Amino acid sequence: MSIDELISRNRSFVAHPGSPTPALRVAVVTCMDCRIDIYRALGLEPGEAHVIRNAGGRARDALRSLLVSQRKLGTREVMLITHTGCGMASFENAEFQEELGTDIDFETFESPEQAAADDAAWLREHPLILEDTTVRAFVYDVKTGAVTEQGGPSD
Is 85 left (phi over 0), alpha (psi -120 to 50) or beta? Predict the structure, then answer.
């Protein structure tokens, strides 16, 4: 069983308790895709950033966590990262809704570049996101590990 393997690995893990406020004051929103090792890709150490993962790395899905991250735990920058070869670009929202018999918006997209840019624009305008927040959008290339910014930096 995979969970038993993870528990076994945990027994050899030594926790390093620290502050819940990330040292870099940044929240990273990215996809749950298991090919993305966001800590290695960005050179992150434990305690440096909040990492929020969901299907597609979508901002709307991450909003609740981002608000806690900002308002209660001090982050002031948001890094949105979609990626190439994302499964969320492989099906249509309406078809999946019909298949499941639900009206949940799965936030599928055709282009990870456009999804990242759209989410950044949406987040910058959201009334609950602090005004002084820097929001930047990127695409992670699953073949090379490179992260490319979409548009320029914006506060």
Answer: left
- The predicted pLDDT at position 16 comes to 64
Q: Between β-strands 77-83 and 26-31, what pairing exists: parallel, antiparallel or unpaired?
A: parallel
The answer, yes or no, to whether residue 154 has pLDDT greater than 60, is no
Whole-structure pTM value: 0.89
Q: Write the secondary structure of the chain as one string of H (helix), E (strand) and C (coil).
A: CHHHHHHHHHHCCCCCCCCCCCCCCEEEEEECCCCCCHHHHHCCCCCCEEEEEECCCCHHHHHHHHHHHHHCCCCCEEEEEEECCCHHHCCCHHHHHHHHCCCCCCCCCCCHHHHHHHHHHHHHHCCCCCCCCEEEEEEECCCCCCEEECCCCCC
**pLDDT value at position 151?**
78
d(CA 64, CA 16): 26
Tell me how far apart the alpha carbons of residues 83 and 147 are, in angstroms, rounded to a whole number: 9
Place of tokens 């820097």: 134
Give the per-residue pLDDT at 120: 97
Domain 21-149 homologous superfamily, CATH? Carbonic anhydrase (3.40.1050.10)
